[in-house]
Design a protein that fits this description.
Blueprint lengths: L10 E5 L6 E10 L4 E5 L5 E4 L4 E2 L1 H12 L3 H11 L15 H12 L4 H11 L4 H7 L8 E2 L3 H8 L3 H9 L5 H20 L16 H24 L20 H19 L4 E4 L10 E4 L1 H17 L6 H4 L1 H23 L16 H7 L6 E2 L2 E2 H28 L7 H19 L8 H4 L5 H14 L2 H8 L6 H30 L10 E4 L5 E3 L10 H14 L11 H25 L1 H9 L10
Antiparallel strand pairs: 1-2, 1-5, 2-3, 3-4, 6-11, 7-8, 9-10, 11-12
């Protein structure tokens, strides 16, 4: 077992991951199993580094002293001593071959800016205090235009050409260069022999109330769905009017389970079709990027065509309304079976493929949050597939079934205005999500959370059966609204959608290309990770403007149901709680990731979701 080289509390130089920059850090702890040091940067950022990424401060000072031998003062003293030599014999340090003489003549023709040579030496060896502050979110000017991101990237990116120029025009003696090559060759030999260390993704902080909280959620989430569906079936869906428990045999039907099974694999077949572009996700902890096929919108079109064929042959789609509880129970059973499969297969997954938030070592917690980050069967990504396909498209199908059931039960030739608004608003939301499917690759669900019961139940049960609650409610409790009220609700939904879509587009465009001329008016705070935090536009208004737009739309979906009961407003109440909790998780992760830069961003943008309120 290798011995530990650096002690706790020792101040050393740590390499920033993915770059050649070294900063002064303090060792806080050491993991004997993974052989990783936890170090703390000056801006408060804590990272786990390998021993090969840490060097003592003396090694940097030693390199600096080597380079100082070619300082102007030393060179001038060398020239003064050479004057005492014979005029016919050149100084020792000034002898050169014919080829070197030709190079010297060419050098005079070239003009090399001093800053371009000084920059790599400055970065590779020991950055000054001002330089360190700039990369940790403390620039001389805390806000920068998006067009200046080109300059920032050029400073951060290791330039091989500049390094070549440095070696070509170095004024150090050959003896120093030879010594330097020997040192580097020894280091290369050492790195080649050293075994590759695995990166530990052990979960240190548990969310959702830990083991007890996640165990309760496994029981409460299905119970909440069944309770809401039973309440909607009652004539008086008041909170105090508890529904009678149905007979157990009435909750299960193998034919319904077969439909759920068929629906899942039909969407899987659409996902595997070789249509749509293939894109890469964000880098994993190992540096590898997974590939994803973007064809969710095509799957929606094919599903709509299949539903159209069923309706043409007079298939009674309102069958969903009559057996909605059975469909929910079957979907819950399917999601539970899928969660068990996901956990069992994750036990054999390599350490680097486990989720950072679901690797606590406790069965209940890891089962709920998801033990494996990206479970795949070949190229079929289970989590990415379930995120948008079966549940989101199923939500639209259930809404359509409720619309047809309303027309049949109330003998209507056309749906009610309330039902049209609810179906239209939610259809727009689903189509937008599928059209902008690529954006989901940067969400916390994909990049951080594992695929366990939380996401499996949420994607396959909670989304289709809770999000369609307003349409289900309107079938048994019709609500009449006037055209002016409908127009006002439509305007409210459009405002929410505009904020939601423009904020997300602004963020995604900035992530793809910060130097886009269309984003030249945006200002940002640079961070140590190389990314920028927007402080203008929607992201300078509140920290999560997309959440604000989401909540406004949720309210617009509930308003067509009137104010007789609070039940149809469950969605907007739940959604506010969900987004406030998610915002707290985002806040915690961003604080760890961006350090002092995030604190500056929070000072610049004080409101989280609701301007002047929260």
């Amino acid at each position: 077992m290798p011995s530990r080289k650096f002690a706790d509390g020792e101040v050393v130089m740590g390499r920033w991951p993915g770059s050649v920059l070294y900063y002064e850090v303090q060792v806080t702890s050491y993991d004997d199993v993974a052989h990783l040091y936890t170090v703390k940067y000056k801006d408060g950022t804590e990272l786990a580094l390998k021993e090969s990424d840490i060097r003592s401060q003396s090694s940097f000072k030693h390199r600096k002293s080597q380079s100082s031998s070619s300082s102007p003062s030393r060179r001038s003293s060398s020239r003064s001593r050479s004057r005492s030599r014979s005029p016919g014999r050149p100084a020792k340090g000034r002898r050169r071959s014919a080829s070197q003489s030709r190079e010297h003549k060419e050098d005079k023709k070239k003009t090399i800016p001093e800053s371009s040579i000084a920059l790599p030496v400055f970065v590779l060896f020991k950055p000054s205090e001002n330089n360190t502050k700039r990369y940790n979110g403390e620039p001389e000017s805390t806000e920068k235009n998006a067009t200046s991101c080109i300059i920032l990237e050029q400073k951060l990116k290791p330039d091989v050409e500049i390094k070549r120029v440095l070696e070509q025009y170095s004024l150090r003696s050959r003896k120093d260069d030879k010594k330097k090559e020997e040192i580097y060759s020894e280091k290369k030999t050492f790195v080649a022999v050293k075994p590759i260390e695995k990166v530990s993704t052990k979960t240190k902080e548990m969310e959702f109330g830990g083991r007890i909280g996640t165990f309760m959620l496994i029981l409460l989430l299905p119970a909440t769905v069944f309770y809401l569906l039973l309440m909607c079936k009652q004539d008086d869906p008041s909170l105090l009017n508890l529904p009678p428990l149905p007979a157990l045999e009435s909750l299960w039907d193998w034919r319904v389970f077969g439909v759920i099974f068929l629906w899942f694999f039909l969407q899987a077949a659409f996902y595997l079709l070789p249509i749509g572009k293939v894109v890469e996700g964000l880098p994993l902890s190992s540096g590898r990027k997974l590939q994803y096929r973007i064809n969710g919108f095509y799957a929606f079109i094919l599903t709509a065509a299949a539903i159209g064929v069923l309706l043409y042959f007079e298939f009674e789609l309102h069958y969903l309304y009559d057996h909605l509880m059975q469909f929910a129970v079957s979907a819950a059973a399917f999601s539970l079976a899928l969660s068990i499969y996901l956990y069992v297969r994750s036990l054999k997954a390599p350490e680097e493929e486990l989720a950072p938030g679901g690797n606590s070592g406790y069965f209940i917690y890891d089962f709920f949050t998801g033990h494996e980050l990206n479970p795949r069967i070949g190229s079929f990504d289970l989590k990415y597939f379930c995120e948008l396909r079966p549940g989101l498209i199923g939500w639209v199908v259930i809404n359509l079934a409720m619309l047809l059931a309303e027309m049949k039960i109330h003998n209507l030739s056309v749906p009610s205005l309330s039902m049209i608004l609810v179906n239209s608003f939610q259809l727009l939301y689903v189509v937008d999500a599928l059209w902008n499917e690529e954006a989901v690759l940067t969400t916390m669900d994909i990049t951080h959370d594992g695929f366990g019961f939380m996401l499996a139940f949420g994607d396959l049960v909670w989304v289709p059966f809770v999000y369609s609650l307003q349409a289900f409610y309107l079938v048994g409790h019709p609500t009449t609204i006037t055209w002016p009220v409908a127009a006002a609700i439509t305007v409210l939904n459009c405002i929410g959608y505009y904020i939601f879509r423009s904020a997300n587009s602004q963020k995604n465009n900035f992530r793809r290309n910060p130097a886009d001329p269309k984003l030249a008016n945006l200002k940002f705070i640079p961070t140590a990770t190389g990314k920028g935090l927007l402080v203008t536009g929607w992201w300078g208004f509140v920290r999560h403007p997309n959440y604000l737009g989401d909540i406004i739309m949720a309210l617009a979906w509930s308003l067509p149901c009137g104010f007789n009961h609070i039940l149809p407003y469950f969605y907007v109440i739940y959604f506010i709680c969900l987004l406030v909790h998610r915002e707290a998780r985002d806040e915690h992760h961003c604080k760890q990731k961006y350090g002092l830069a995030w604190e500056r961003y929070c000072q610049r943008v004080p409101y989280r979701i609701f301007p002047y309120i929260y």
